Amino acid sequence: MQQRTPIEEQIDLPFLESLRISFQSLKIRFGRSIITTAGITLGIAFLVSVWMNNEIGIALQESGRQSTINTFEETTQKGISTKDIWLIVMSLIVCVVGIANSMLMAVTERFREIGTMKCLGALDGFVVRLFLLESGFQGFSGALIGALIGTLGAVLLGLKDYGLDLFFYFPLFPAQPEDGPRQLGVIVVILLGCFLGMVLAVIGSSFPAWRAAKLPPAEAMRTEV
Amino acid sequence: MADIVVKTEDVVKEYRMGSNVLRALDGINIEIERGEYISLMGPSGSGKSTLFNMIGALDTPTEGQVYIDGQNMSQLTQRQIAAFRCHRVGYIFQSYNLLPVRSAHGNVTLPMIFAGLPERARNEKAEELLDMVGLGDRMYHLPDELSGGQRQRVAIARALANDPSIVLADEPTANLDTVIGREIIDLIKSLNEEQGVTIISATHDLKMLDVSDRIVDIRDGLVERVRSRDEIDIEVGEVGGH
Ligand SMILES: Nc1ncnc2c1ncn2[C@@H]1O[C@H](COP(=O)(O)OP(=O)(O)O)[C@@H](O)[C@H]1O
Ligand SMILES: [Mg+2]
Fold first, then answer.
1. Domain-wise residue ranges, chain A
2. Mind telling me how many Å the CA of B44 is from chain A's nearest CA?
3. Whose CA is nearest to atom 14 of ligand 1?
4. Which of A12, A11, A221, A21 is nearest to A130 (CA)?
5. Which of A4, A43, A139, B167 has the fewest CB atoms below 10 angstroms from its CB?
């Protein structure tokens, strides 16, 4: 029992220890993790499907094909129409708000846990790191699933619009046609979707986690959700 | 003379809610000796938990100072406060406050992880502590799978993980029935007697009376009176006599 000795400085935890604690938390809270992750999946699926649909549209117009069903004026023009930009921006907003909301809820219901960990000697930075790791992992896996679902959705839509031609001109890789708009291609859109989901989840959880970690433990433990 | 572990000097705590200011502590002065078993008694809302939080560095006073082991708490860095909570104090709460994602064993090892203890050492210590509180056969259960009394035992084992010199308990028996409550009190008392841990317990459980060395009566954020062991015995005797 140490007595009278001056109070020492709290040590930092090794990264691996933080990683273990965060994975254990994800595993035990699997059901709840899935719900949070589903929020991310939905947001990214929506965004990627709209975006991918647009990519496919451009690629097939580029190839001289036209939608067999869609007879909007815009489809005959080359490039991204205002309507498409608007749709993508809208879905991006829905995605950002949806993910921020999922993460906020997931952190808020754990204020008590945060207060408790601080009672046991956790540094504020450790608490934030824990949430960063958990949300980063949730963000990436949720977004990957979302991006794949979104792609599948866009492909189905493309099949409906262009029939099997879709597969002949499938924009898998980035392309820069002479006189057309730049195309990102399916792979890049999926990767961007994953990246975006992860970044949004990390940002969305680190702000509330930081706020909770800064609270005196007594206050953090008072919150009833 | 006496070895003072905890000393508060005119501790005031105000809570601000909009334009209202609630003075939960109105100038508390107490001194607690090493090895004492102190009960903070008082009706609900009198300020027991608020004082508990001040002594345990879980919140900061609006005015006044708290000294632990002669150290002015307001002068510590964030890292020192974290180390203080980790090493010097064990906390026991009315609502247990176990981490729901960690087993009994995982809850007990966590403070030792924060203290930087190697894995083998902390596993052994956790098993030893859980054995001591009578949960040797429930170590890997999640808090959800344990009864209230068992959860409080886990909390006690966790509070002892880093050999604190002070254990703070905020109404540890309030959510438990009389029999289980008595067992928890006896367990806390045995830490006090056998390991010399200073116990500071907020309570309005009268069962706590006969294990306490001193009782601090709190009312409206003020120390109403302090009764020693002998005075308590006399009162208990009187009550019994009538
Ligand atoms: N975080 C807080 N914000 C506002 N008021 C509080 C807060 N914590 C406690 N109080 C108030 O301070 C007073 C003392 O509360 P508390 O210390 O919890 O009493 P006890 O533990 O003795 O029941 C009560 O009136 C309570 O409502
Ligand atoms: Mg209370």
1. 17-23+36-222
2. 16
3. B47
4. A21
5. A4
